[in-house]
TrEMBL record:
The gene is tsaD. Binds 1 Fe(2+) ion per subunit. GO terms for cellular component: cytoplasm. Substrate binds at I133, V134, S135, G136, G137, D166, G179, D183, N273. Required for the formation of a threonylcarbamoyl group on adenosine at position 37 (t(6)A37) in tRNAs that read codons beginning with adenine. Is involved in the transfer of the threonylcarbamoyl moiety of threonylcarbamoyl-AMP (TC-AMP) to the N6 group of A37, together with TsaE and TsaB. TsaD likely plays a direct catalytic role in this reaction. The keyword tRNA processing applies. GO terms for biological process: tRNA threonylcarbamoyladenosine modification. This is tRNA N6-adenosine threonylcarbamoyltransferase. It comes from Geoalkalibacter ferrihydriticus DSM 17813. Keywords: Acyltransferase, Cytoplasm, Iron, Metal-binding, Transferase, tRNA processing. The keyword NAD does not apply. It is found in: Cytoplasm. Belongs to the KAE1 / TsaD family. The lineage of its organism: Bacteria, Pseudomonadati, Thermodesulfobacteriota, Desulfuromonadia, Desulfuromonadales.
C-alpha cells in the first residue's frame, strides 16, 4: 500500500511517501527550529501557523521526490497525538481533507508508536522487544509486543532526557535545542572530571529522573567565578552526558532482564546521542543482546515513521473516522485502542 504520511506534533512539519510500511520513497522534514530558537523553546501559536504554511510545501516535495502524483496515494497516515493540539490539528485536518477528497482510507497514529517502530523501515526487528524512547517529551521503557500492543515498563518521574539536554544547553548558553551540541562538546571532554548524580540508578525499578542532574549542573555553573568555556565546557558536557547515559543504560539492561527479552530498540531524538549509542552497543556485546538504533533522520521527528503502524492498521481494514480528534495527551499503551479494543 502506498501511503502519504503527515506529522506536525511539535516543531517539525513533515511528509513522507512509504510503500508497504517498509520502503521509504521520500521523507521531507521542514524544521521550525530557527523560528523558536530565539524564545528558547517551542511557542505553540507560532508552531501552528508555521505548520499551516509548510504543510502544502512538504507534501508537494514528498510527492515529487517519490516521483508520483497524489492520485497514486492509496492511504493517508497522520499523527493524532500526543503533542501541541493546535500543531497536531494541521496534519490531522490536512490528512482528513485529502482522504475525503480522494476517497481513500486514512488513520491517526500515535507519535511515540511512530518513534518506537521507525526501526522497521530499515531492518526487521522481531516482536516482542523492549523499546527505550528518549526524546524531547519522553523517557520511557516499553514492552512492544506487536503493532498496537505496548506496555509501559518505566518512565521518567520528571524531565525527559531530551528536555534535560535542552535545559543544560540553555543554561550554558548553547542555544535551543541543544542536545546535539552537548553531545558534540562531550566527545572532547573528560567524563570523570566533574561527577554529577545518577538519580534512581540503584533503585529496583525502571523509572528515571533527570531534573536532579540538570539542577546539579545548574548549581555547579552558579559556583564558578568565571564563564565556563574551552576544555572546562567539554568536561562539564562530558560529565553530564556520562551521568545521563549511565542511567539510561542501566535501566534498559534492567528492563531486558525483567522481561527476559534480548532485543532493545532505542528511538526518539536522544537516540542520536553518540555517548548513548556507544554505551548500549558495548553493553550489548557484553550482555549478549541485540540493540537497534534507527539512522539519525529516523530518530528525530519525521513522517515516514508513522507508516509502519499505519500500514498494518489499514491493511487489516481499520480506518479512522472523519470526526477523529487530536489528543494532546495520549498514553502509548492506549495507542491501539481505537481499533483493537474498546473505543477511546
Ligand atoms: P516527543 O517525541 O517526546 O513528543 P519531540 O518530538 O520534541 O518529543 P524528538 O524530535 O524525538 O522529540 O527529539 C528531540 C530531542 O532530541 C531534543 O530534546 C534534542 O535536544 C534531542 N537530541 C537530538 N540529538 C541529540 C543528541 N545527539 N544528543 C542528545 N540529545 C539529542
Ligand atoms: Mg522537534
Ligand atoms: Fe518526537
Amino acid at each position: 500500500m502506498l501511503l502519504l504520511c503527515l506529522e506536525s506534533s511539535c516543531d517539525e512539519t513533515a511528509a513522507a511517501v512509504v510503500r508497504d510500511g517498509r520502503e521509504v520513497l521520500s521523507n521531507i522534514i521542514a524544521s521550525q527550529v530557527d523560528v523558536h530558537a530565539r524564545y528558547g523553546g517551542v511557542v505553540p501559536e507560532l508552531a501552528s501557523r508555521k505548520h499551516l504554511e509548510a504543510m502544502p510545501v512538504v507534501i508537494e516535495d514528498a510527492l515529487e521526490r517519490a516521483g508520483i502524483g497524489i492520485e497514486a496515494i492509496e492511504g493517508i497516515a497522520v499523527t493524532r497525538g500526543p503533542g501541541l493540539v493546535g500543531a497536531l490539528l494541521v496534519a490531522l485536518a490536512t490528512g482528513k481533507a485529502l482522504a475525503f477528497a480522494r476517497d481513500i482510507p486514512w488513520v491517526g497514529v500515535h507519535h511515540i508508536e511512530g518513534h518506537a517502530l521507525a526501526i522497521q523501515l530499515e531492518q526487521e526487528v522481531t516482536y516482542p522487544f523492549v523499546a527505550l524512547i528518549v526524546s524531547g517529551g519522553h523517557t520511557h521503557l516499553y514492552l512492544v509486543e506487536g503493532v498496537g500492543h505496548y506496555r509501559i515498563l518505566g518512565r521518567t518521574l520528571d524531565d525527559a532526557a531530551g528536555e534535560a539536554y535542552d535545559k543544560v544547553a540553555k543554561l550554558l548558553g548553547l542555544g535551543y535545542p541543544g542536545g546535539a551540541v552537548v553531545d558534540r562538546l562531550a566527545a572532547e571532554g573528560d567524563p570523570e572530571s566533574i561527577v554529577f548524580p545518577r538519580p534512581l540508578l540503584h533503585q529496583d525499578n525502571l523509572d528515571f529522573s533527570f531534573s536532579g542532574i540538570k539542577t546539579a549542573v545548574l548549581n555547579y555553573v552558579k559556583k564558578q567565578s568565571s564563564e565556563i568555556s574551552g576544555s572546562h565546557l567539554n568536561d562539564l558536557a562530558a560529565g553530564f552526558q556520562r551521568a545521563a547515559v549511565e542511567v539510561l543504560t542501566a535501566k534498559s539492561l534492567r528492563a531486558l532482564k525483567a522481561t527476559g527479552l534480548r532485543r532493545l530498540v532505542v528511538a526518539g531524538g536522544v537516540a542520536c546521542n553518540r555517548g548513548l549509542r556507544q554505551s548500549l552497543q558495548q553493553a550489548a556485546r557484553e550482555g549478549e543482546f541485540e540493540v537497534f538504533f534507527p539512522t539519525p533522520l529516523l530518530c528525530t521527528d519525521n513522517a515516514a515513521m508513522l507508516a509502519v503502524a499505519a500500514d498494518a492498521y489499514l491493511s487489516q481494514g481499520h480506518r479512522s473516522a472523519l470526526d477523529l480528534n487530536a489528543l494532546a495527551g495520549w498514553p502509548l499503551d492506549r495507542a491501539g485502542d481505537e481499533f483493537l479494543f474498546s473505543s477511546i
